Amino acid sequence: MKNSIKRFFTIIIFAFCLSMPLSVHADISFPARLEITEVEPGIYDVLFVLPVMEGKVLKAKPVFPEAFNFLGKPIVDVDRNTKRIRWRVSCDPEKLAGLKIGIDGVLGSQTDVFFELSLLNGRLYAKKLSPTHAYYVIPSPPTVLGITKEAFVNGAQRLLSVYPFYLLVLVLCAFFTLKEFSKLSLNFCLFSLLGLWLATMDHLVFSKYHFDFIILLMSLFMSYGLLKRDRTDLKLTTAFIFSALLGLAFGAITRPYVNLDGFTSSNVSVYLFAVTLGVLIGCVLIILMSHKLLILLKLILKKQTDVLLGKIVGVLAFALIIYEASLYWMAPSMLPKLPYALCIFVLVSAYALKKVDEVNLLNKLLIFLLPLGFGTSFVFLGIQFPFALTIALACTWVLLLCGFYKGLQIKPLIITVVVLGAVSSGFLLAESVTANLSFALGQTMGYLIILMLVVTSILNFKTELTLEKLRPFSILFTWIAVLGLLIIWSQDFFDIEIDTFKTDYTIGLIHIPLLSLGCVFLVVMTWPRYKKIHKAMNLERKKPVLSYLFLGLTVFLMPLTVTASNPWHVFKAPNSSEIYQITQRILNNTYTAFNLKDETQLFTTLSNNLEGSLVDHVYLDSRRRLTTGLQEGAEVTVEEVTVSDIGERIETDDMLTVFKYPVEWTVKARVRHLQHIHYRQNKYLGEITLKVIDKVWKISNMTLTSEDRTIISANNK
User: Fold this and answer.
1) Any signal peptide, and if so, which residues (predicted)?
2) What is the pLDDT, as a whole number, of residue 14?
């Protein structure tokens, strides 16, 4: 038991370390903000930022109370996106409480102003000021007694308001004694404290709808165990894991109800512990109420209490599940945004680990969780994981093969495949969350909790399905996985690679599949020889198993090529199809270059696609057009560049080497803020001049005649 507890806390330490070392920080981006920072006792630096929209600045100014004294003249700094005004003021810190600070001149506009007041004692006041309520009254510093009272009541109310929790506790009363329940309650509360603490730093985000739905599903499964009259479905060790995961999730859903404005670090600590105490009291009340209700049922019925309790809880849980599921039916965007490959791998790998009897539950969870968390860290550390989707589906395929071939049910093989698939699945999870959701790190941690609940449930609960009964389903899912692999491979190869080959050949490049050529050489070298002497001695021809393996690798490694200049290519006047390919490639390279963080690499890429005299102009003009009208601090990533139309060639002085065309193209970019993600689509119409410079097609001139900007929500992209 002691070793199990050590392993369990190893998981928690890993989760804690995963949330802390990553330097993933972000600020809420607002087009206008007012920041007041105390730099010395009674001395404050003021920063007022206004957006510049199409060369115009909003005529707004901060309004300070009479207690504020200005020290010197303001310093004004203006660029193409923002106007910044800085100055210094003085005010007695003891007189701050009750003072009103506001913004004048925003009424009638659509500009929100972010206000922040930071003091030397650690207190931080922050609020979004709307045009209709553009003022903030500084509150009095909170007292320890007031913090404790508010937090205690808040914690108890939050737990008591989660009605599915009553059903879960009621059905668990049939599995555990009050002494065991007290340990589970303490464990739940401690992890809710950890979850709330992580949520205050935006390291953990969890949806209340998901929490309620998970609680109802667990209640339904527990009631099924009572109907079977089998209480061995849930052991105390497993219940500790469930309570820890649910505690983390509950702490995260409590965060929106917690207001920490004006709190020092000691105030925050008091608040968090008081909330935890309130949660503990609420948990004790629910347990005692459920326990007394169960005793009352036993006194009335005297027998078959478990069966009746299972029926009552099961019917209620099922009905509430249907009710809660209606939300996802009406608003599909509320569903967890998990990749298909990740979902199928989690289900298959959990069942595969279930068949490894030599490893206990905690070790199985570690085998799954550690690589999964390791894979998610790749995205946040900026490390690429090539072919993650293909590897995840391939591992799923291998595990399914192990499911219905007893000869492949080897413990080291299963564990190795699960670890490799978990790393790639973790990368897929974090990549999907980062691309589609805000609070990427917190959302990823929340989804990890959901996945661990699913895996723990599959590993723990008994099933009456034998291997023979599962064989048809295993074969079906195997073929689905194989089909998915083929679809992905065909999309990557036929839809992308062949187009790439054509375009590269047009511009004078060739792709050499060195690995495939090496495999062909190995096929020839390993093919079994059958000479006359073998025939004379009546020896059987060896089967070319190894040669077939290299032959298969020859096909699958064809996308991995080396690009080189085509020495036989002759540059000539391109036809309409070739002009489209050349223009598409150059524009795509030009705009996606702005995704590079390194300015040197950016200018190198631009120089490879643009004539030297055009590089600086395109750099400044394109960056301005991509970021015009955006909030300061927004992250713009170009995702797609599409040439929609190319007109007839325009006559020039040099018709042999200069090719000028009217072109219409669209640039789609993702704009990421901390609180939301949207897409913007810029449609351009202009004239592009192409010519061969140093045996490379480049744009020598670009003239825009029109531009149309469109904002697209993330759900409608």
Assistant:
1) 1-26
2) 46
pLDDT at 23 over 50: no
Q: Which pLDDT score, from 0 to 100, does residue 497 have? A: 60
CA 382 – CA 597 distance, rounded (Å)? 12
More confident position, 210 or 656: 210
**Exposed e or buried b per residue across 474-484, where buried means at least 16 C-beta atoms within 10 angstroms of its C-beta:** beebbeebbeb
User: Which backbone phi and psi does 131 adopt, to 5 degrees?
Assistant: -60, -30
Q: What is the per-residue pLDDT across 318-329, written as a single tens digit (0 to 9) for each? A: 888 888 888 777
- Please report, rounded to a whole number, the percentage of residues in the chain having pLDDT higher than 70: 78
Question: How far, in Å, CA of 606 to CA of 443, rounded?
Answer: 36
Contacts of 422 (CB under 8 A, 6+ apart): 345, 349, 367, 368, 371, 372, 375
Distance CA 590, CA 621 (A): 12
Please state the three-class secondary structure of 400-456 as a single string: HHHHHCHHHCCHHHHHHHHHHHHHHHHHHHHHHHHHHCCCHHHHHHHHHHHHHHHHH
- Report, in this order, helix, strand and coil percent for the chain, each rounded to 5: 55, 20, 25
Phi, psi angles (nearest 5°) of residue 228: -80, -5
Pick the CATH number of 576-716 from 3.40.50, 1.10.1660, 3.10.450, 3.10.620: 3.10.450
- How many angstroms separate the CA atoms of 663 and 703, rounded? 10
d(CA 128, CA 33): 9
Average pLDDT over residues 440-449: 86
The span from the CA of 497 to the CA of 480, in Å, is 24
Domain with CATH 3.10.450 in the chain: 576-716
- What are 77's two structure tokens? 């700094």
Q: Give the span between the Cα atoms of 315 and 313, in whole angstroms.
A: 6
